[in-house]
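W.,

You were right to be curious about this one. When I first looked at the sequence I had no strong expectations either way, so I just let the prediction run and decided to look at it fresh. Below is the sequence, 327 residues in total, followed by the output.
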Amino acid sequence: MYKLNGIPLVNYGIHPGRAPLSNVALEGFLDMPERLGKTFHDWLDDEGLEPYVEADEIFFAGRTITFYGLLAGENQQDAVLKLRELYEDFGRITELVTLSTDWGDFQVYLKEKIQVRYVGQGWAQITMRLQQPVVPLPADPLPEERTIAQYHIDYVPFSAFGAFIADTSGQYDRPELKAAEFTSYNQEGYQLTKIGQSEIDLVIWFVATDMPSLQANVGRLHALLAAPGTRTINIDDTEREGFAVDGFTVARIRNAPGQCLAQVRVKLLMAFAGTPLVNEYLLDNKLQGILDDQGRFIQIDRKQYLELWDDRGYNILDDKLQPIKLG
Protein backbone atom coordinates (compact mmCIF):
# COMPACT_ATOMS: atom_id res chain seq x y z
CA MET A 1 0.00 0.00 0.00
CA TYR A 2 1.44 3.35 -1.06
CA LYS A 3 0.31 6.37 0.93
CA LEU A 4 1.09 10.08 0.66
CA ASN A 5 0.34 12.26 3.67
CA GLY A 6 -1.60 9.34 5.13
CA ILE A 7 -3.89 9.03 2.08
CA PRO A 8 -3.69 5.78 0.09
CA LEU A 9 -2.86 6.60 -3.53
CA VAL A 10 -5.50 4.10 -4.58
CA ASN A 11 -8.04 6.66 -3.29
CA TYR A 12 -7.11 8.71 -6.37
CA GLY A 13 -7.31 5.64 -8.57
CA ILE A 14 -3.50 5.38 -8.66
CA HIS A 15 -1.95 1.90 -8.60
CA PRO A 16 1.79 1.07 -8.42
CA GLY A 17 3.44 0.80 -11.82
CA ARG A 18 7.01 -0.10 -12.61
CA ALA A 19 10.13 2.02 -12.78
CA PRO A 20 12.16 1.61 -15.99
CA LEU A 21 13.80 -1.84 -16.20
CA SER A 22 12.41 -2.64 -12.75
CA ASN A 23 9.39 -4.41 -11.33
CA VAL A 24 8.81 -2.07 -8.37
CA ALA A 25 7.10 1.33 -8.51
CA LEU A 26 9.83 3.36 -6.78
CA GLU A 27 13.17 4.57 -8.06
CA GLY A 28 15.82 6.46 -6.14
CA PHE A 29 14.81 5.38 -2.64
CA LEU A 30 18.10 3.48 -2.20
CA ASP A 31 20.34 6.10 -3.81
CA MET A 32 23.26 7.56 -1.89
CA PRO A 33 23.05 11.38 -2.13
CA GLU A 34 25.85 13.48 -3.52
CA ARG A 35 28.07 15.55 -1.26
CA LEU A 36 27.54 19.25 -0.67
CA GLY A 37 30.21 21.95 -0.67
CA LYS A 38 33.84 21.65 -1.66
CA THR A 39 34.92 18.01 -1.76
CA PHE A 40 38.56 18.31 -2.88
CA HIS A 41 41.27 20.79 -3.84
CA ASP A 42 43.28 20.67 -7.03
CA TRP A 43 46.81 21.94 -6.45
CA LEU A 44 48.06 22.89 -9.90
CA ASP A 45 51.68 22.17 -9.03
CA ASP A 46 50.96 18.65 -7.73
CA GLU A 47 49.63 15.56 -9.46
CA GLY A 48 46.15 14.38 -8.56
CA LEU A 49 43.97 16.13 -6.00
CA GLU A 50 43.63 16.57 -2.26
CA PRO A 51 40.43 14.94 -0.95
CA TYR A 52 38.36 16.69 1.70
CA VAL A 53 37.24 13.71 3.76
CA GLU A 54 37.45 14.78 7.39
CA ALA A 55 34.26 14.30 9.40
CA ASP A 56 33.59 18.06 9.58
CA GLU A 57 34.07 18.40 5.80
CA ILE A 58 31.44 15.85 4.76
CA PHE A 59 27.86 17.01 4.12
CA PHE A 60 25.20 15.44 1.91
CA ALA A 61 22.35 16.69 -0.23
CA GLY A 62 18.94 15.04 -0.41
CA ARG A 63 17.76 12.54 -2.98
CA THR A 64 14.94 12.31 -5.49
CA ILE A 65 12.44 9.46 -5.10
CA THR A 66 10.33 8.80 -8.18
CA PHE A 67 6.99 7.02 -8.07
CA TYR A 68 5.66 5.42 -11.25
CA GLY A 69 1.96 4.62 -11.26
CA LEU A 70 -1.07 3.78 -13.34
CA LEU A 71 -4.20 5.84 -12.83
CA ALA A 72 -7.38 3.89 -13.53
CA GLY A 73 -10.53 5.87 -14.27
CA GLU A 74 -13.86 4.77 -15.67
CA ASN A 75 -13.26 7.05 -18.65
CA GLN A 76 -11.20 10.09 -19.60
CA GLN A 77 -13.43 12.50 -17.68
CA ASP A 78 -13.21 10.39 -14.53
CA ALA A 79 -9.40 10.24 -14.86
CA VAL A 80 -9.26 14.05 -15.09
CA LEU A 81 -11.43 14.40 -11.97
CA LYS A 82 -9.17 12.03 -10.02
CA LEU A 83 -6.10 14.01 -11.08
CA ARG A 84 -7.77 17.27 -10.07
CA GLU A 85 -8.45 15.88 -6.59
CA LEU A 86 -4.81 14.83 -6.28
CA TYR A 87 -3.59 18.26 -7.36
CA GLU A 88 -5.90 20.05 -4.94
CA ASP A 89 -4.65 17.94 -2.04
CA PHE A 90 -1.04 18.72 -2.99
CA GLY A 91 -1.93 22.40 -3.06
CA ARG A 92 -2.93 22.28 0.62
CA ILE A 93 0.41 20.80 1.74
CA THR A 94 2.71 23.33 3.46
CA GLU A 95 5.41 21.06 4.94
CA LEU A 96 7.13 17.75 4.42
CA VAL A 97 4.78 14.78 4.20
CA THR A 98 5.30 11.06 4.67
CA LEU A 99 5.51 8.82 1.64
CA SER A 100 4.63 5.37 2.98
CA THR A 101 5.70 2.45 0.80
CA ASP A 102 6.35 -1.26 1.00
CA TRP A 103 10.05 -0.40 1.35
CA GLY A 104 9.91 2.23 4.09
CA ASP A 105 8.64 5.68 4.98
CA PHE A 106 10.23 8.84 3.58
CA GLN A 107 9.78 12.51 4.50
CA VAL A 108 9.36 14.28 1.16
CA TYR A 109 7.92 17.19 -0.80
CA LEU A 110 6.81 17.40 -4.43
CA LYS A 111 9.91 18.40 -6.38
CA GLU A 112 8.45 19.29 -9.77
CA LYS A 113 5.39 18.94 -11.94
CA ILE A 114 3.49 15.64 -11.95
CA GLN A 115 3.83 14.09 -15.39
CA VAL A 116 0.75 12.35 -16.78
CA ARG A 117 0.35 10.52 -20.09
CA TYR A 118 -3.16 9.50 -20.98
CA VAL A 119 -3.18 6.17 -22.86
CA GLY A 120 -6.90 5.56 -23.35
CA GLN A 121 -10.09 4.15 -21.82
CA GLY A 122 -9.55 5.95 -18.51
CA TRP A 123 -5.95 4.74 -18.08
CA ALA A 124 -3.01 7.11 -17.59
CA GLN A 125 0.65 6.74 -16.72
CA ILE A 126 1.68 9.01 -13.85
CA THR A 127 5.15 9.97 -12.65
CA MET A 128 5.75 11.86 -9.39
CA ARG A 129 9.23 13.05 -8.42
CA LEU A 130 9.48 13.68 -4.70
CA GLN A 131 12.47 15.13 -2.86
CA GLN A 132 13.76 13.71 0.42
CA PRO A 133 15.90 16.61 1.72
CA VAL A 134 17.36 14.77 4.71
CA VAL A 135 18.54 11.20 4.16
CA PRO A 136 19.35 9.26 7.35
CA LEU A 137 22.67 7.46 7.30
CA PRO A 138 22.09 3.66 7.35
CA ALA A 139 23.03 2.16 10.69
CA ASP A 140 23.48 -1.56 9.89
CA PRO A 141 26.98 -2.78 10.86
CA LEU A 142 29.46 -3.76 8.17
CA PRO A 143 29.97 -7.45 7.39
CA GLU A 144 32.67 -9.00 9.56
CA GLU A 145 34.42 -10.80 6.70
CA ARG A 146 37.76 -9.34 5.56
CA THR A 147 40.11 -10.13 2.66
CA ILE A 148 43.12 -8.74 0.79
CA ALA A 149 42.15 -10.58 -2.39
CA GLN A 150 40.66 -9.04 -5.50
CA TYR A 151 37.18 -7.43 -5.29
CA HIS A 152 37.11 -5.71 -1.94
CA ILE A 153 36.44 -2.24 -0.55
CA ASP A 154 38.24 -1.37 2.68
CA TYR A 155 39.10 -5.10 2.77
CA VAL A 156 35.44 -6.09 2.96
CA PRO A 157 34.81 -8.43 -0.01
CA PHE A 158 31.99 -7.31 -2.27
CA SER A 159 30.56 -10.81 -1.92
CA ALA A 160 30.00 -10.11 1.81
CA PHE A 161 27.47 -7.48 0.69
CA GLY A 162 25.89 -10.00 -1.67
CA ALA A 163 27.40 -7.90 -4.45
CA PHE A 164 29.39 -8.60 -7.61
CA ILE A 165 31.34 -6.28 -9.87
CA ALA A 166 29.71 -6.29 -13.32
CA ASP A 167 31.75 -3.64 -15.11
CA THR A 168 34.43 -1.04 -14.48
CA SER A 169 35.89 1.78 -16.51
CA GLY A 170 38.53 4.45 -16.11
CA GLN A 171 41.04 2.59 -13.98
CA TYR A 172 43.44 2.11 -16.91
CA ASP A 173 43.17 5.64 -18.30
CA ARG A 174 45.83 8.27 -17.89
CA PRO A 175 44.01 11.11 -16.13
CA GLU A 176 43.13 14.38 -17.78
CA LEU A 177 45.85 17.05 -17.64
CA LYS A 178 45.45 20.06 -15.40
CA ALA A 179 44.35 23.28 -17.07
CA ALA A 180 47.09 25.13 -18.92
CA GLU A 181 47.73 28.82 -18.26
CA PHE A 182 49.82 30.71 -20.82
CA THR A 183 49.92 33.79 -22.99
CA SER A 184 50.68 33.48 -26.69
CA TYR A 185 50.83 35.97 -29.57
CA ASN A 186 50.72 35.13 -33.26
CA GLN A 187 51.18 31.39 -32.79
CA GLU A 188 49.69 28.45 -30.92
CA GLY A 189 50.75 28.43 -27.33
CA TYR A 190 51.12 25.54 -24.93
CA GLN A 191 52.06 24.57 -21.41
CA LEU A 192 52.94 21.10 -20.19
CA THR A 193 50.96 20.42 -17.02
CA LYS A 194 50.70 17.64 -14.47
CA ILE A 195 47.96 15.02 -14.47
CA GLY A 196 44.73 15.93 -12.72
CA GLN A 197 41.59 14.15 -11.63
CA SER A 198 41.39 10.38 -12.01
CA GLU A 199 38.17 8.42 -11.53
CA ILE A 200 36.79 4.90 -11.71
CA ASP A 201 33.21 4.03 -12.63
CA LEU A 202 31.78 0.85 -11.12
CA VAL A 203 28.67 -1.13 -12.01
CA ILE A 204 27.77 -3.43 -9.12
CA TRP A 205 24.92 -5.94 -8.87
CA PHE A 206 23.47 -6.71 -5.46
CA VAL A 207 21.73 -10.08 -4.99
CA ALA A 208 19.64 -11.08 -1.97
CA THR A 209 16.84 -13.45 -1.05
CA ASP A 210 14.43 -10.59 -0.29
CA MET A 211 14.13 -6.82 -0.45
CA PRO A 212 14.92 -6.07 3.23
CA SER A 213 18.21 -7.96 2.94
CA LEU A 214 19.09 -6.16 -0.27
CA GLN A 215 18.20 -2.78 1.26
CA ALA A 216 20.41 -3.52 4.26
CA ASN A 217 23.39 -4.47 2.10
CA VAL A 218 23.05 -1.42 -0.15
CA GLY A 219 22.77 0.67 3.02
CA ARG A 220 26.00 -0.83 4.34
CA LEU A 221 27.84 0.27 1.19
CA HIS A 222 26.22 3.71 1.56
CA ALA A 223 27.46 4.03 5.14
CA LEU A 224 30.96 2.84 4.22
CA LEU A 225 31.33 5.34 1.37
CA ALA A 226 29.95 8.15 3.56
CA ALA A 227 32.40 7.53 6.40
CA PRO A 228 35.31 9.94 6.98
CA GLY A 229 38.56 9.19 5.18
CA THR A 230 39.27 7.58 1.86
CA ARG A 231 38.38 4.03 0.85
CA THR A 232 40.83 1.34 -0.26
CA ILE A 233 39.40 -0.49 -3.25
CA ASN A 234 40.67 -3.49 -5.23
CA ILE A 235 38.93 -4.39 -8.47
CA ASP A 236 41.85 -5.81 -10.47
CA ASP A 237 44.52 -6.97 -7.99
CA THR A 238 45.58 -3.35 -7.55
CA GLU A 239 44.76 -1.40 -4.42
CA ARG A 240 43.71 2.19 -5.02
CA GLU A 241 42.62 4.93 -2.66
CA GLY A 242 39.42 6.77 -3.56
CA PHE A 243 36.33 8.55 -2.30
CA ALA A 244 32.78 9.18 -3.54
CA VAL A 245 31.47 12.71 -4.09
CA ASP A 246 28.47 11.98 -6.34
CA GLY A 247 26.98 9.22 -4.18
CA PHE A 248 25.52 6.35 -6.20
CA THR A 249 22.34 5.42 -8.00
CA VAL A 250 20.33 2.23 -7.61
CA ALA A 251 18.18 1.05 -10.52
CA ARG A 252 16.89 -2.07 -12.29
CA ILE A 253 15.44 -3.40 -9.04
CA ARG A 254 13.81 -6.78 -9.58
CA ASN A 255 11.94 -8.23 -6.66
CA ALA A 256 10.67 -11.81 -6.87
CA PRO A 257 9.99 -14.56 -4.32
CA GLY A 258 13.35 -15.86 -3.10
CA GLN A 259 15.45 -13.44 -5.14
CA CYS A 260 15.97 -9.69 -5.31
CA LEU A 261 18.42 -7.89 -7.59
CA ALA A 262 19.53 -4.28 -7.98
CA GLN A 263 22.17 -2.45 -10.00
CA VAL A 264 24.36 0.17 -8.32
CA ARG A 265 26.42 2.68 -10.29
CA VAL A 266 29.10 4.62 -8.41
CA LYS A 267 32.00 6.87 -9.39
CA LEU A 268 35.07 7.07 -7.18
CA LEU A 269 37.65 9.84 -7.44
CA MET A 270 41.18 8.56 -6.94
CA ALA A 271 43.53 10.11 -4.42
CA PHE A 272 46.40 8.00 -5.72
CA ALA A 273 46.84 5.78 -8.79
CA GLY A 274 47.74 2.10 -8.90
CA THR A 275 49.27 -0.17 -11.51
CA PRO A 276 46.45 -1.69 -13.59
CA LEU A 277 46.17 -5.41 -14.26
CA VAL A 278 43.66 -7.43 -16.31
CA ASN A 279 40.07 -7.44 -15.05
CA GLU A 280 37.80 -10.47 -14.81
CA TYR A 281 34.21 -9.28 -15.03
CA LEU A 282 31.35 -11.15 -13.46
CA LEU A 283 28.63 -10.52 -16.04
CA ASP A 284 27.87 -12.91 -18.88
CA ASN A 285 28.37 -11.69 -22.45
CA LYS A 286 24.67 -11.26 -23.23
CA LEU A 287 24.03 -9.29 -20.01
CA GLN A 288 21.26 -11.77 -19.19
CA GLY A 289 22.41 -12.56 -15.68
CA ILE A 290 25.17 -12.44 -13.10
CA LEU A 291 27.98 -14.86 -12.37
CA ASP A 292 28.83 -15.33 -8.71
CA ASP A 293 32.38 -15.56 -7.35
CA GLN A 294 32.43 -19.27 -8.24
CA GLY A 295 31.47 -18.60 -11.86
CA ARG A 296 27.96 -19.99 -11.39
CA PHE A 297 25.13 -18.41 -13.38
CA ILE A 298 22.37 -16.72 -11.39
CA GLN A 299 19.15 -17.23 -13.33
CA ILE A 300 16.76 -14.33 -13.94
CA ASP A 301 13.16 -15.08 -14.90
CA ARG A 302 12.63 -12.40 -17.52
CA LYS A 303 8.83 -12.81 -17.54
CA GLN A 304 8.65 -11.37 -14.05
CA TYR A 305 10.14 -8.08 -15.17
CA LEU A 306 8.03 -7.16 -18.20
CA GLU A 307 6.58 -3.68 -18.10
CA LEU A 308 2.87 -3.23 -17.42
CA TRP A 309 2.56 -1.47 -20.77
CA ASP A 310 4.34 -1.87 -24.07
CA ASP A 311 7.15 0.42 -25.20
CA ARG A 312 4.81 2.82 -27.01
CA GLY A 313 2.30 2.91 -24.15
CA TYR A 314 -0.58 1.72 -26.34
CA ASN A 315 -1.30 -1.48 -24.43
CA ILE A 316 -1.40 -2.51 -20.79
CA LEU A 317 -0.56 -6.13 -20.02
CA ASP A 318 -2.88 -8.23 -17.88
CA ASP A 319 -1.74 -10.79 -15.32
CA LYS A 320 -1.26 -13.31 -18.13
CA LEU A 321 0.94 -10.86 -20.03
CA GLN A 322 -1.69 -10.41 -22.71
CA PRO A 323 -2.27 -6.87 -24.04
CA ILE A 324 -5.42 -4.98 -23.11
CA LYS A 325 -6.12 -2.93 -26.20
CA LEU A 326 -6.69 0.76 -25.62
CA GLY A 327 -8.13 3.35 -27.97
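Here's what jumped out at me. The longest helix spans residues 76-91. And, maybe more interesting for your project: The radius of gyration is 23 Å.

Coffee later to discuss?

I.
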